[in-house]
Amino acid sequence: MSDTATAQDEEPKEPLSAEEQMRERRAAAYRRATRVLARMGLRAPLRERLARLQEAAPEVYDLDEPSDLYGNGVVEALERRVAALLGTEAAAFFPTGTMAQQVALRCWAARTGNPTVALHALAHPEVHERDAFREVAGLRTVRVTGEPRLPTAQEIRDFAEPFGALMLELPLRDAGFVLPTWEELTELVQAARERDAVVHFDGARLWESTVRLGRSLSEIADLADSVYVSFYKSLDGFGGAALAGPKSLVEEAKTWRHRYGGMVFQQFPTALAALIGLERELPRLPDYVRHARVVAAALREGFAESGVPWARVHPGEPHTHQFQVWLPYDADVLMEAAVRQAEETGTYLFTSLWDTKGPGLSMTELTVTAAGLEWTAEDVRAAVADFATRLPAAPRWGRGELREQPPTTRTRPAGVAGALSVAGCTMGT
C-alpha cells in the first residue's frame, strides 16, 4: 500500500475541546515554569518519579530484604513507623483513606452500638465520597455545622440527637484548611466524651497541624480514639493511608481491610514512597507552614497595591501550608491569566484549578512547599502585580468600595460573605 493511500485511509483527528486545550496548556506551563510555589510529585513524569524512588529508597529501608507479600515486610515497617510517630499502640496500612475511615467507623459503630457519625457538612466523606459511609459501610451521618470552621464544644453539647462517633477533619480542607486552637480542640473532644461518643480524627493532613496547635503529633493523636493519616497529600507519596489506634481496633480493622479488597498482593513502591515522605518531607512541613504565612501576607499586599477591587486570602494567616485565594472574576478568566503569565514569564503563581463559586467569583487553593521557600515577599508581590495586568477591567462593584455585592452561594464560606458585606473593604482578613 502506498504512503498516499495510507494517509487517505487515516481518519482525521477530532480537534481538542477548549477544556482539553487548557489542560494541555496547564501541563506544559507547569513543566516549563522556572518558578512555582510548589512542585508536586504527582505532576512529574513517571521516569522522574521512579528515579527519585530509586535514589531515596536506600535511606529508609534495606533493599536487600525480600519484597512484601500481602502486607508484610516493608509495609509492616511503615505501620510501625506511623504508630511510633503518632504514639499509638498499632497502625494498619490501607490503599486509600476512604477505605480506612469506613473501616474505622464501622468498627466503632459495632462497639458503641450506634452507627451515627457526627461530622462537619464540609467533611471529606460528605463532599467527596459519594455517600460511601451510608452506601457501603451502613453508617448514618449527621452534620453538626456547616460554618467554615471546626464545630465548637457547645455545638457538640447542644446537638439534638445521640451519635456514636464524632469525626473531626484536621485541618478542614474545604473550609480553607482551617484548624481550631489547641484549647478549642481539647474542649471539643471533651464535649464528645461527655456524650459517650468516640472521637476519630480525619488526619489526612494532620502532619502539618503541629505548628498552629503547638503540640507534637503524638500529643494531638492522643486526644482521639483513632486517627487516619495520608501518605500523599502532604508527604508527596504515591498514595496510601494508615489507620492508627488501639491494637484491638487495628487488628479488627485489618480483617475488614481484607473484606474490602484492601489486602493488596504487593505494595512496596507505595510503602517506600511513604517512608521517604516521612523521612524527607515531614521535618520540612513546619517551614512550609511558616513561609505560607509570608506568602499569604504578600499576596494580600500585592492585590491591594495592584488595585484589584476585592481579593481574599483565607484564612488571613494560614493555619497550614495550604490556603485559599478568592477573586472577583470567572474561573476561566483567572485560569487564562495564570497560564498566560506562566507561558510568557516562566512564573506560575496559581497552578491549581480555579473553582467558580458564583457569578463573577472564583476560588483557588495555594500550596507552599520547598520550591516556595525560594520566594521572598517581594517576589510574591511582583508576581501578583504582573498577574493583575492580565486581568480584564474591574467589576463595577469594586474599586475600593463595594457598591454592589456579588450573588451569594451555598458553597461560599461564611467568612468570605462577611468580608463582602463590609463597605469600603478591599479585602478580608
Automatic annotation (TrEMBL):
Needed co-factor(s): pyridoxal 5'-phosphate
Region (Disordered): 1-24
Domain Aromatic amino acid beta-eliminating lyase/threonine aldolase: 73-300
Keywords from the UniProt entry: Lyase, Pyridoxal phosphate
Biased composition (Basic and acidic residues): 13-24
SUPFAM superfamilies: PLP-dependent transferases (SSF53383)
Highest taxon in the source lineage: Bacteria
Keyword Membrane: no
Record-linked InterPro entries: ArAA_b-elim_lyase/Thr_aldolase, PyrdxlP-dep_Trfase, PyrdxlP-dep_Trfase_major, PyrdxlP-dep_Trfase_small
GO MF, one annotated term: lyase activity
Family: Belongs to the threonine aldolase family.
Cited PANTHER family: L-THREONINE ALDOLASE, L-THREONINE ALDOLASE-RELATED
Protein name, per record: Beta-eliminating lyase-related protein
